[in-house]
Design goal:
homotetramer; alpha/beta; Rossmann fold; six-stranded mixed sheet; 6 strands; 20% strand
Amino acid sequence: MADLTALALICSLTPSPAPSSSELMAQHVLKELEDHGAATSSLRVVDHNVMPGVQVDMGDGDAWPGIREQILAADILVIATPIWMGHPSSIAQQVIERLDADLAETDDAGRPVMYGKVAVVAVVGNEDGAHNTFADIQQALNDVGFTTPAQGNTYWVGEAMQTVDYQDLDSVPEKVASATAGAAQNAVHLARLLKKEPYPAG
Amino acid sequence: MADLTALALICSLTPSPAPSSSELMAQHVLKELEDHGAATSSLRVVDHNVMPGVQVDMGDGDAWPGIREQILAADILVIATPIWMGHPSSIAQQVIERLDADLAETDDAGRPVMYGKVAVVAVVGNEDGAHNTFADIQQALNDVGFTTPAQGNTYWVGEAMQTVDYQDLDSVPEKVASATAGAAQNAVHLARLLKKEPYPAG
Amino acid sequence: MADLTALALICSLTPSPAPSSSELMAQHVLKELEDHGAATSSLRVVDHNVMPGVQVDMGDGDAWPGIREQILAADILVIATPIWMGHPSSIAQQVIERLDADLAETDDAGRPVMYGKVAVVAVVGNEDGAHNTFADIQQALNDVGFTTPAQGNTYWVGEAMQTVDYQDLDSVPEKVASATAGAAQNAVHLARLLKKEPYPAG
Amino acid sequence: MADLTALALICSLTPSPAPSSSELMAQHVLKELEDHGAATSSLRVVDHNVMPGVQVDMGDGDAWPGIREQILAADILVIATPIWMGHPSSIAQQVIERLDADLAETDDAGRPVMYGKVAVVAVVGNEDGAHNTFADIQQALNDVGFTTPAQGNTYWVGEAMQTVDYQDLDSVPEKVASATAGAAQNAVHLARLLKKEPYPAG
């Protein structure tokens, strides 16, 4: 029986069922999380009608409240995003904006509702921008209450100005696979610690 | 008769007609551009069905091609964006993603189609994040072919962790008004120079 | 008896004994860490001859190996930096560069030597740039093996284009004091968990 | 006779005469600038005793005032920097900090002293971080008064997590050479326009 749950939000600009390098990278992270005992699920955010805004619920037709329930039920959140122009995708930024509302939401002990959850960031791009993308996403998730495990990221990008996709690689480079495995292992370890001994109320 | 045209893309998350601090800041920039002889227009991107993606036209129902025509017709592009979690809004990032397609589009002389246009970035937020927002937007627009005038930005943010909006201020602080005026003046000067003597073909 | 140790590296551009807002903010963080049972120390990096480079020891006269010993002996690392032009100070970036060498240094179990340590980032500036500064410093420390506690940052900046320093404030704003206290509390909790149950070897 | 002058500040962490990929990239940019009629010079900042601080002159022994005179005499400034941990080098950030003082320095017409100068950013790294490095350096230079030409950057980085240097390549990839040539051509064109018709006084 899995003692932890992990949810991957895939922030590709491309709706299903078209293939997505972000989804592939998310699957690689989730596979590692499963090997360490987590039950996992994932969704492509662009497949859902997430409305622009910074409230928990933007009203009629907004798909975010349903996604938020899945985040609240998870111990580990994986944000998988492509790089566009050196930045996280607009969909990833939209996820961050919707999570912004949870800065003001607290549990019975007065802690932000996202406290104790662990975040992993997974990034793919043709070229350049992974570190900036981690930095932006980690900082935002950390502001909202997520904890970042040691080396809690993984990524692949090609050489400068190249156009190959992660999903086009014959095989995952060993260093990338190792980063993916390490991030997952550390996330699971940290999530178990925080589940057993949550952050104290302020 | 105006010899230049300027277009402001307002990247608020809030649809019209609700008030928007980004729109107010855009109006302040456009007013200065008009005083220097530019004909101006603006639109809130969130009011239009801009589809996710990185192609010039994402197909049926996509509002981007119409917006892109307006950009192509303008000499000066103003991007006005709120700050969310320290970053440009998801709408601003979406604009950048849609402009990405124009890296591959060239004019008859083989120059990128956006060459010779001048960009101004205008940013508002409750607190913190303006410089990073400039940096991200300027870099992306520059990659696509826009030229950035000296001190080509303006912004307002409040003190750390505060919640007042630009539109709630009794008056625009003098330094902010001065930055707005300077960015506009330099943009107009540069746009005239580049209109008269375009970048050479490569 | 303290069961944890914390070290603050103050990344002001100004040598001692001149007053420094970064140092003041570091003291506020350290005071909170002490209240939670940590023994603390601090140093201003600019007072020491840290040589440019990315090796553990850059040779004759390099003060970094001594500072690195203090980091290795600490459970919690506080990086306190001013903002210059919206970025971490050059001294903070230099600290990051020197830590880069530790990506390749491992303990007896094959884990990076910085694994299990917890990082807090404390930022001050006249205006704007704190979130970007967190993002850059957290991402770099995380890459090297530090863990970031929930809301593991604190900061103060003034309104846009203002010139007041943190050390000039009559009192620390309540929200800032609360952020400082929260970051410290979470850092201590996390450091104790990771000390008791370290990340597994890969 | 050259009608323009260009200065490259090489922000490698490595003192001369050791080889430097940043210096090689700077030479490639300068060669293009010369082909377009500019007289060029360069220096490695780390070879000089540039003191920490944000004043025009930090006092006894400070090498910055001499470097600043060379910047003031140049029409085009090239900042060439390696990427460390996804960021501009600490030396590049130090250059930015020293230029910060020039926000307050004005010419006889009341314009910031750096107005009318054009900036090019050249970046090299083993892997990832070029776009963020451009963004940070461009934004800072633009704040001080430099103008950024269309596509005013060039860079090379390898695939994710690789360790090859720019100076180790058998040849410069064609796309990189093309970016270098384009940035230089646009910088020269813009510098000539701004020299002939400077920005107006405010």
